[in-house]
Design a protein that fits this description.
The chain has 401 residues and is an alpha/beta fold. The chain is 27% helix and 28% strand. The strands form two sheets. Strands 8-9-6-5-4-3-2-1-18-13 form a ten-stranded mixed sheet. It has an eight-stranded mixed sheet with strand order 7-10-11-12-14-15-16-17.
Length: 401
Amino acid sequence: MDVTMIQHPVGQGGLFSGQLQVGDSVLRWVYDCGSNQQDRLNEEILAVAAQGTIDLLFLSHLDSDHVSGVDRLLAATTVAEVVLPYLSATEFALIVAQNAATGALSGTFLEFVTDPAKWLIARGVSTVSFIHSVEENQQLAEWQLLESDGEGLSREDTSRLNVRWTQPVSKQRSVKHGTVQHFPTGAAVGVAANGQGLDWLLVPYAHKPSERRMQRFVNELKAVFGRALTRQAIARHARNEQGRAVLRECYDRLWLDHNKVSMSLYAGPQASPRIISQQQSYSHWRVGAPALSRAEVGWLMTGDAHLAAGRRLFALLNYYHHLRDRVSVLVLPHHGSELSFHPALVPGFSNLSTCIVAAGRNQYGHPHSHVYEQVRTYLGVQGWHHVSECPSSGFGVRAVL
């Protein structure tokens, strides 16, 4: 089983690609596809698309710097399934207000977030899967992954590995040219080859803001827009300057800490793997990467998860408690922002070797020096890797298991 995982150098945004290969069969997945540095993003999208069909595209959240390249990716290659967190009408309003507040709101982006499933299927995606999130104070039951039994999606194309969700669909509907489905918290993607389950998982986790704060945001919106808080009504207001100004005001009053819905993703084995060989360092692959001996190969990507609050961090750690020892690479939340970082985050993973911060030119001071010092204290200087818009700054791992 050969695996390659890369955090691409796209600047202020995010683009990760992974590939799992068994014999001649492959599985390819991508996590986020956006950046404020469009030229760098375009180059990396073409490199990813040139590798062929993408089985799964995971979108952590709908901020423009994480999804601005999705249209170009869909135009350049086939994407079979897109996975993203489900947003209520209020959470949708929050996304629109946040992008209005940062000046990132465009007509195309507004069309996308108003109805992501329709937008994606119209561009060739076969299946759109929504992951439902949990609230900050909601207690999760003991989380157990189902064993892979090889009953994956049957495909005529034998060049693709089979995938299946480990939880049943909670809601599903067929639409013209595609399928829209919803999964409860706890669903993960298992992989099978030749009818045999592989020890490889893709495990998303979406955590939502507190009910109290969301209700305050609803009250702010209702005071201005009335009670019709539908997606269409919010989108209508977002299309004129006065409506955008009010949305910005509502956002600025309550959400300056970016405490919003964001979906993390674990990619890796369930059991500690036997690593036959491993290479690290994206920038050195062109000249031959050194062989490394590391105990684990799992990656955890956190999008813009607001993990500065202890209850949110410990909810995430609890959710992944079966897999935390498998995590070798952690992509830090929100481009290394201090507002999304908790000192207990890095020590929460006992076999962690590298923290990646994906941050390009920006006006926010990402990554924060305090975050760097915290990582350096725990992992040393070698445990910090800054992926920027510099083409040689990307970080990747190749391993044979």
